[in-house]
Amino acid sequence: MKPLAKDIDATPMTQPVASTNVTAYPLSGLNQRAHEQIGVKISKDIDLAHMRRWPNRAMNPTSRLWLLIASPGLRIIVLHRLAHWVYLKHKNGGKLKWLWRIMSIPAGLLKLTLMKLSTQSDIAKDCEIEGGVSFSDQGNIIFGARKAGAGTVIGTRVTVGMNHIDKGRPEIGRNVWIGPDCVVFGAITVGDGATLLPGTVLSKSIPAGVVMQGNFPRLVLRNFDNSELRMRQDLDVMQYMDTKRES
Amino acid sequence: MFENIRADVLRVHRSTEPLRLKDILRSFWVNYGLQALVIYRFGRWLSGVRKHCFSWPFTLPLYPLYWVLAAWARNAYGINLDQSATIAPGFYINHFGGVEVRNCIIGPHCNIQQQAKVGAAENTGMGPIIGKGVWIGAHSRICAHVTVGDGAAIGVGAVVTQDVPDHCLVLGNPARIAQRDYDNRPLL
């Protein structure tokens, strides 16, 4: 089959020809560089969590390492990165496929003890999360999005995507703030920079930069900059939104 | 107890065929809701045999075991199936975390999801009565003395404050009927 013109244009010139490692996940890039990539992604996660937790503290290796131990939200995303890496290796792997199948057992055990039982949250192993995503430290998150963009902040008691019954899974853009008690389900797209205020139940696609609230969801604001919400944990959200709505 | 647990295991596999031992063990390993449900059934069985005096020497040592297991399910999985609830066989808990079931009567073949609260306010004491084959979505609350009809579907995030007729889909806060004659069998 002849490749389409846009497929050729989308392929970078430096990319070597992948012979056996034809990946079903174009977002996760080349298989050989997966190890590097998860390191970079985890580093971005730590940066975001550090900025959110200690806004005034200098980011040195000691405090970053301490955050990795202290913050449950950071722990679950790091464990997901490990499990997702093993999953991709097994999925795309050639000769050593059986090895990654075995490696998925300790990865699953780590996930069970440090993610599921201690924070009651679960992240599906096949969802692609870009670097720099922050999960709430309180846990109780069920996360099954197909993709999630960088800079997204997810609150406690959030469900994204449902189970196998559901027809599709949501796709979350970059810089999205999802407040506590939100549910996002169905084959929908949440646009870049969208904000879901606490208690929203969303089952329809929303464009970039909007603020939604309620069950059924209603539009509160358009073209809203949610960087304050994403970067500050100690904000009284409802009060802050009231001041924004008046102005 | 064992008939009820058997029905619950069959619900996990969505089949009525006889299962192999491997499948049964795997369903216990994978499904935390099933583990919590077995602990709940064990507690119900203990309180059931309590009325026979001759069983006390055998069952009284099992009470601390039940308490420890129930505390494990409550804290590690976040699934709180209180003994004041009456749950018919064929109950299925889909995800873990934040499930609260107390002071209510639940019919057979029901389905509950994460963060769903089914029970009563502290002062009234009597919770909802839920019919057969009801699908209770994630983050929903049924915290009043209401009756939910057979085959109803409580939508995601719904807060039920009034009676729900049979085969209805309710959505929203407060819950309103979104669709009558709704077939929830694909969901179960």
Quick take:
Chain A has 247 residues and is an alpha/beta fold. Chain A has helices spanning 5-10, 34-53, 61-70, 72-92, 97-119, 227-231, 237-246; strands spanning 122-123, 128-129, 134-135, 142-143, 147-148, 153-154, 159-160, 171-172, 177-178, 183-184, 189-190, 195-196, 201-202, 211-213, 218-221.
What is the count of distinct domains of chain A?
A: 2
Outline the biggest β-sheet of chain B: 6 strands, mixed
What best-fitting shape of chain A do the alpha-carbon axes yield?
Answer: globular
Return residue spans of chain A where pLDDT drops below 50 for at least 5 consecutive residues: 1-35
Average pLDDT, all residues of chain A: 83
The CATH homologous superfamily of the largest domain in chain A is named Hexapeptide repeat proteins
Give me the CATH fold name of chain B: UDP N-Acetylglucosamine Acyltransferase, domain 1
Q: How are strands sequenced across the largest beta sheet of chain B?
A: 3-6-9-12-14-15
CATH topology of the largest domain in chain A: UDP N-Acetylglucosamine Acyltransferase, domain 1
User: Class of chain B, according to the CATH hierarchy?
Assistant: Mainly Beta
Strand residue percentage of chain A:
5-15%
Helix content of chain B: 25-40%
DSSP, total strands of chain B: 15
Give a topology summary:
The complex is a heterodimer of chains A (247) and B (188).
Chain A lengths: L4 H6 L23 H20 L7 H10 L1 H21 L4 H23 L2 E2 L4 E2 L4 E2 L6 E2 L3 E2 L4 E2 L4 E2 L10 E2 L4 E2 L4 E2 L4 E2 L4 E2 L4 E2 L8 E3 L4 E4 L5 H5 L5 H10 L1
Parallel strand pairs in A: 1-4, 2-5, 3-6, 4-7, 5-8, 6-9, 7-10, 8-11, 9-12, 10-13, 12-14
Antiparallel strand pairs in A: 14-15
Chain B lengths: L1 H12 L7 H10 L1 H18 L6 H4 L2 H16 L1 E3 L4 E2 L4 E2 L5 E3 L3 E2 L4 E2 L4 E2 L10 E2 L4 E2 L4 E2 L4 E2 L4 E2 L4 E2 L7 E4 L4 E5 L8
Parallel strand pairs in B: 1-4, 2-5, 3-6, 4-7, 5-8, 6-9, 7-10, 8-11, 9-12, 10-13, 12-14
Antiparallel strand pairs in B: 14-15
Helix pairs in contact in B: 1-3, 3-5
